[in-house]
Automatic annotation (TrEMBL):
Organism: Jiangella anatolica
Binding sites annotated in the UniProt record for FAD: 17-18, 210, 436-437
Recorded family membership: Belongs to the GMC oxidoreductase family.
Annotated Pfam families: GMC_oxred_C, GMC_oxred_N
Lineage: Bacteria, Bacillati, Actinomycetota, Actinomycetes, Jiangellales
Protein name: GMC family oxidoreductase
Binding site residues for substrate: 435
């Protein structure tokens, strides 16, 4: 076990998707950096310590999970999987790299967040894509299940595209861009940390759970870390939180930074009253639709698998519902998992990308190992727009499935009993699901915004020397899967830190 140092100029809390980018960029610049990860550090790429499920890009890894879920907020449990290991969610995701649309980031800049427009961020998207070894499948590479939906998509207003990441493009269906090399998921530990691991000014410590930030005289001066069975204080010149949408706000709350009423109820001494900490939680609501398949599709897929690489996710569609007049607000994701032994599933997911519903993350106790209360309040917007958008997406998929009926077979889920719109809407309300893209709980905002947690330079309001660098600072989720936007969050905040020196 690597020992904790007594102090570091920069302490980065969280060795996940964004945190590794921040730590690597600061270390490359010659700065003294300590990276703390609550889960294990398995070492560089190629180390035998890496669990197989975290490397295998054909499935979603689950061996190192925080165990977060919806708790008792619904009559059933919705899992909110987050990776607790070096690399974070870049260890376990589906490897789909999408950027969203120009309106996403330009809207941030138009709200007063200088430096966050699409043109500001595009160089960082390109750099992140290069570092993460992203490549784009060709249409000829698609498996029979993926190709069937790709070929059918133009009938529903989605022209066949070469890729998904033209930020000025709206509807279309395209092969995915993925961070996969020789069947291995390329995470940010491989892409960003490995090139700098040998630098003497970078120290990476795993199994180091940060309890709270120490604030002295209005400035972050260090962190309290649980490591090796003991609580230790490490001094810091600057603290950068990169725990993601669930863990960054909980660290702030345990540090006394957040809504006073919540902190008082847990006997956490108030450091800075910031009522927006933990609020504005949102994710894109999701529905996984499944069909019975056919003998023809089964045989075609078996031939593809026997010939070599046959990914479960490989193409994606985007289209606008009647609620979006700017670009698009629906994703379609064909899915045909190979690792489910003893049964086959022929599925396509649909997600509403611009949700109006907002939830929250709150502490149950001041114990850093206690699971927080996570309530996304899926489909809770009073206008009912979120459920209406998702229902429109399901209707589009059913239209496509009708044209593919001989290949895809009969609908199994949600099934014929939901063919009437009212029945489908009732099903969606009873069975909320997520797209694994939580954001917004430490959101950026301009001066005078009472619910802003950080400013446009990612500085926590009212606390010097404390920044947040992950998807929690997003004011509103982009029309994207958030893996590459999370890399861009790290790239952007690292540059802000270097500028401010």
């Amino acid at each position: 076990m690597r020992a904790l140092p007594e102090a570091a100029e920069y302490v980065v809390v969280g060795g996940g998707t964004s945190g590794n980018v921040v730590a690597a960029r600061l270390a490359e610049a010659g700065l003294d950096v300590l990276l703390l990860e609550a889960g294990p550090d398995f070492g560089p790429e190629g180390s035998a310590a890496w669990p197989a499920d975290l490397l295998d890009a054909t499935r979603l890894g689950r061996s190192h999970d925080w165990g977060y879920d919806s708790g008792d907020t619904y009559p059933w449990t919705v899992g909110f999987e987050r990776a607790r290991a070096i690399g974070g969610c870049s260890d376990v995701n589906g490897c789909t790299q999408t950027w969203g649309h120009r309106r996403d980031y330009d809207a941030w800049a138009e709200s007063g967040l200088t430096g966050w427009s699409t043109d500001d961020l595009l160089p960082l998207f390109h750099e992140g894509t290069r570092r993460m070894r992203v490549h784009t499948y060709a249409a000829a590479d698609l498996t029979p299940w993926q190709r069937a939906w790709y070929d059918a998509a133009p009938a529903a207003g989605m022209p066949c595209l070469d890729d998904l990441n033209d930020v000025d493009e709206a509807a279309g269906f395209a092969p995915e861009s993925v961070n996969i090399q020789d069947g291995v998921r390329v995470n940010t530990a491989f892409a960003y940390l490995d090139p700098v691991r040998a630098l003497p000014n970078l120290r990476i410590v795993g199994d180091a759970l940060v309890d709270r930030v120490v604030v002295s005289g209005g400035r972050a001066s260090g962190v309290v870390v649980r490591h090796g069975g003991a609580a230790t204080t490490v001094r810091a010149g600057t603290v950068v939180l990169a725990g993601g949408a669930y863990n960054s706000p909980t660290v702030l709350l345990r540090s006394g930074i957040g809504p006073y009423a919540q902190l008082a109820a847990l006997d956490v001494p108030l450091v800075q009253h910031l009522p927006g900490v933990g609020e504005n939680l949102h994710d894109q609501p999701f529905l996984l639709m499944s069909w019975s398949g056919s003998e023809e599709m089964t045989a075609a897929m078996e031939r593809a698998r026997s010939a070599g690489w046959a990914p479960d996710e490989q193409a994606m569609g985007k289209v606008a519902s009647s609620f979006d007049t700017e670009a698009f607000d629906l994703h379609f994701l064909p899915y045909s998992p190979t690792h489910l032994t003893g049964r086959k599933r022929w599925s396509v997911g649909v997600s509403a990308l611009q949700p109006r519903s907002r939830g929250f993350v709150r502490l149950r106790s001041a114990d850093p190992e206690a699971k927080p209360v996570i309530d996304h309040r899926f489909l809770a917007d009073p206008e009912g727009a979120d459920v209406a958008v998702l229902a429109e997406g399901a209707a589009i998929l059913r239209e496509l499935a009708a044209g593919l009926a001989p290949l895809v077979g009969a609908e199994l889920h949600p099934g014929p009993e939901t063919f009437a719109r009212d029945a489908l809407v009732a099903h969606l309300y009873r069975h909320p699901d997520n797209y694994w893209h939580p954001v917004g709980t430490c959101r950026m905002g301009v001066d005078g915004d009472p619910l802003a947690v950080v400013d446009e330079r990612a500085r926590v309001h009212g606390v010097d020397g404390l920044r947040v660098a992950d998807c929690s600072i997003m004011p509103r989720i982009p029309r994207a899967t958030t893996a590459m936007p999370a890399v861009v969050m790290g790239e952007k905040v690292a540059r802000l830190l270097l500028e401010d020196r």
